């Protein structure tokens, strides 16, 4: 055995330049060399590829690697060729090859020059290819991303289910199946489907100690993400979004904020995707904003952050995507933004699918919600999902452990919960049980008359969200088993039955709340969002001074909400001023200079640290409604006609026009006003708005004793602001 170890290490050095193996790599490679079926579960960054690449280079014949993504194949083939003098050592065979390329690949295979051939599952299922593969010497089959076999996997591919029969039709050679994410259920599925129940199983720990996990309430996520990435100037990161549209929008937002970001999604043509991927790898771009189409097989070791703009539809997906951070063992920050509205959107995507698929999808989504909302150590919860026990109660590297929440004694609640599950014959899922205990009459509860059950609502002193949290903590404590086979039905474990016989104090953690109040606290850099009162007074006085110089009322210069926003966010450049509420480009240029100078002086004198989100610029909002209104005014359409075309009232349109004018854009409503009011009446109202200190319409109605309608006065105020302020 010693000589084998020495020779394997020397082969590793010879082909790849490494002096030693990582983790279980050496034992896995020995298993493959000994001709055994081998099953490898190893987290992203653990070195899975080496487990089949080295034996393929050592053994006679060609190893066939089944891989689901063309981008991954090219990436890995390029990497292998980089260690060799000739391109023939590794090839891929998929739909991207033309006839000439395909002929070259087949020629090298027949000549025995190729050690690794990457194929898509679709390629392997074609009879013409099956017949060809029967003619060449195959060393073994490697099935990468093996979780694609399982319907419970996060990237299920039906064609993967046929792999066993096809492999046997070609040649009964050893199989190595590899995956970076496999729950006990998925592992069982893979082994059963590939006929590998007696195979050697190697399972590495899923704990990536260097990764920091954090989930935040989602509130103006683009702004949150810009602010976060700005802390990592020049460092590499990936941002995942669910939709192509969001990818494009966020990439553009990052670009206008000086971040070198590029989009990546399946809607881009292949050459653009390849170019963006290469720019990221070559560090010509710092950030890739992507759908989940990006990242499989991308071996960039120094990705410092992975951000989820949207929570993924499964924890496997989340784990694999976050696993692209910190592969070199250095800093890796995994930040997710969570809103239950996103979960509802994911559930809508399941509509119309077969019932079994919907149930599986909902169960996977429930696991994701559990993770997002959990109050316990995120690492503990994540590893539990993958069937691994994490002994520590505090990992010291997630938001919940670094900011622990209040504990409470849950003994009475746990007893009530376990008794309720038993009373309902262990037939229901977590959401049902939490609604039942909290006394929420859901349609499902009503349909079987459980709202009449003697235990219904016996836990209504506790919110449904907290009951769900207690259930999750009981699952982690092994008092409850969630039967995945039965779509998440809750059963009492043996430990749970023992606990019921002898209940003891049990500490649990209050759930994290993702409601509006939590969002508000997070979104504000100043604790309560209150403006700097001293600065506000200075800006208010300055507004009066400028107004006197311009012979205009102060509200024409800047409105109170604009001054309040300035006193909260401290803009000190013209660019930053245009991000203030109610300040457009025109108004900023016309009146802004003395204000940004005053704020600059105030910030320096008082040594104020400005909030970093001040610098967040949004992509110019080319609101379709705004553009349509301005175009319609140019065409002299009535407010009623403009509104009816957009399903809005004339009053709604008037409000939109007021917002347009307040931000500094000039509009001309004379074609309406001239029909409503004679010139002398217009002058009378115009003079009123010039002389008044306030722009209140109610005050104006009172001043004119109801002679003019609210609509007429609002339109005249629009005219006044357009002519005098914009």
Taking strands numbered 1, 2, ... along the chain, how are they ordered across the largest sheet? 3-4-2-5-6-1-7
Task: Provide the CATH superfamily of the largest domain.
Answer: P-loop containing nucleotide triphosphate hydrolases
Count of helical stretches? 36
Major sheet? 7 strands, parallel
What does the model show?
By secondary structure, the chain is of the alpha/beta class. The protein has five domains: 202 residues, Rossmann fold, CATH 3.40.50.300; 178 residues, P-loop containing nucleotide triphosphate hydrolases (Rossmann fold, 3-Layer(aba) Sandwich), CATH 3.40.50.300; 95 residues, Winged helix-like DNA-binding domain superfamily/Winged helix DNA-binding domain (Arc Repressor Mutant, subunit A), CATH 1.10.10; 83 residues, Orthogonal Bundle (DNA polymerase, domain 1), CATH 1.10.150.80; 102 residues, Arc Repressor Mutant, subunit A (Orthogonal Bundle). Helices cover 49% and strands 11% of the residues. It has 36 helices and 17 strands. It has a seven-stranded parallel sheet with strand order 3-4-2-5-6-1-7, with helices on both faces. The protein has a six-stranded parallel sheet with strand order 8-13-12-9-11-10, with helices on both faces. It has a two-stranded antiparallel sheet with strand order 14-17. Strand 12, helix 13 and strand 13 form a beta-alpha-beta unit. Helix 2 packs parallel to helix 3, helix 24 runs antiparallel to helix 29 and helix 34 packs across helix 36. The longest helix is centred in the middle third of the chain and has 19 residues. It is globular, with a radius of gyration of 32 Å.
């Amino acid at each position: 055995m010693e000589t084998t170890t020495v020779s394997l290490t020397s082969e590793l050095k010879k082909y790849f330049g490494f002096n030693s193996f990582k983790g279980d790599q050496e034992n896995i490679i020995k298993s493959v060399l000994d001709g055994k079926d081998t099953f490898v579960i190893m987290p992203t960054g653990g070195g899975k590829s080496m487990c089949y690449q080295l034996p393929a280079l050592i053994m006679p014949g060609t190893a066939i690697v089944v891989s689901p993504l063309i981008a991954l194949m090219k990436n890995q083939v390029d990497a292998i060729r980089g260690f060799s003098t000739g391109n023939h050592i590794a090839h891929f065979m998929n739909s991207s090859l033309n006839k000439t390329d395909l002929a070259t690949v087949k020629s090298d295979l027949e000549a025995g020059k190729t050690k690794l051939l990457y194929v898509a599952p679709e390629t392997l299922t074609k009879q013409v290819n099956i017949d060809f593969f029967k003619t060449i010497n195959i060393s073994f089959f490697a099935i990468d991303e093996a979780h694609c076999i399982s319907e419970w996997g996060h990237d299920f591919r039906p064609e993967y289910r046929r792999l066993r029969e096809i492999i046997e039709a070609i040649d009964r050679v050893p199989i190595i199946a590899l995956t970076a994410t496999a729950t006990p259920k998925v592992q069982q599925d893979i082994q059963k489907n590939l006929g590998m129940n007696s195979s050697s199983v190697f399972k590495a720990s899923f704990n990536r100690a260097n990764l920091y996990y954090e989930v935040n309430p989602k509130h103006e996520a683009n702004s949150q993400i810009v602010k976060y990435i700005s802390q990592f100037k020049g460092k590499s990161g990936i941002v995942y979004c669910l939709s192509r549209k969001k990818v494009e929008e966020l990439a553009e937002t990052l670009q206008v904020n000086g971040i070198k970001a590029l989009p990546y999604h399946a809607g881009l043509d292949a050459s653009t995707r390849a170019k963006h991927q290469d720019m990221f790898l070559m560090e010509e771009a710092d950030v890739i904003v992507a759908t989940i189409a990006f990242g499989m097989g991308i071996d960039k070791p120094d990705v410092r952050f992975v951000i989820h703009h949207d929570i993924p539809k499964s924890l496997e997906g989340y784990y694999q995507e976050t696993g692209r951070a910190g592969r070199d063992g250095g800093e890796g920050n995994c930040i997710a933004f969570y809103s239950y509205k996103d979960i509802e959107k994911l559930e809508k995507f399941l509509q119309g699918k077969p019932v079994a698929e919907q149930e599986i999808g909902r169960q996977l989504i429930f696991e994701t919600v559990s993770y997002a909302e959990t109050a316990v150590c995120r690492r503990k919860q994540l590893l539990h999902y993958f069937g691994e026990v994490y002994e520590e109660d505090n990992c010291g590297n997630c938001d919940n452990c670094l900011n622990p929440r209040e504990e409470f004694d849950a003994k009475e609640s746990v007893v009530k919960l376990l008794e309720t599950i038993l009373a309902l014959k262990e037939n229901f899922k977590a959401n049902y049980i939490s609604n039942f205990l909290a006394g929420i009459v859901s349609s499902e509860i009503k349909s079987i008359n459980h709202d009449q059950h003697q235990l219904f609502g016996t836990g209504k002193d506790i919110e449904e969200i907290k009951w769900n949290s207690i259930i999750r903590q009981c699952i982690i404590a092994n008092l409850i088993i969630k039967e995945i086979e039965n779509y998440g039905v809750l059963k009492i474990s043996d430990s749970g039955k023992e606990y019921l016989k002898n209940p003891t104090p049990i500490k649990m953690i209050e759930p994290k709340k993702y409601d509006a109040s939590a969002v508000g606290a997070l979104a504000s850099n100043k604790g309560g969002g209150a403006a700097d009162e001293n600065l506000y007074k200075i800006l208010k006085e300055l507004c009066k001074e400028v107004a006197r110089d311009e012979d205009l009322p102060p509200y024409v210069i800047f409105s109170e909400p604009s001054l309040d926003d300035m006193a909260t966010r401290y803009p000190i450049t013209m660019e930053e001023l245009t991000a203030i509420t109610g300040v457009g480009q025109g108004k900023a240029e016309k009146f802004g200079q003395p204000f940004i100078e005053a704020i600059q002086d105030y910030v320096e004198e008082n040594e104020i640290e400005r909030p970093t989100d001040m610098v967040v610029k949004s992509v110019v909002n080319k609101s379709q409604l705004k553009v349509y209104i301005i175009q319609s005014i140019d065409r002299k359409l009535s407010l009623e006609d403009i509104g009816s075309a957009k399903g809005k009232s004339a009053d709604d349109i008037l409000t939109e026009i007021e917002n347009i004018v307040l931000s500094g854009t000039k509009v001309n409503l004379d074609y309406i006003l001239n029909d409503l009011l004679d010139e002398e009446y217009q002058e009378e109202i115009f003079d009123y708005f010039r002389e008044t200190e306030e722009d209140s319409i109610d005050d104006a109605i009172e001043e004119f004793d109801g002679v003019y309608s609210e609509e007429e006065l609002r339109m005249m105020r629009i005219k006044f602001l357009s002519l005098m302020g914009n």
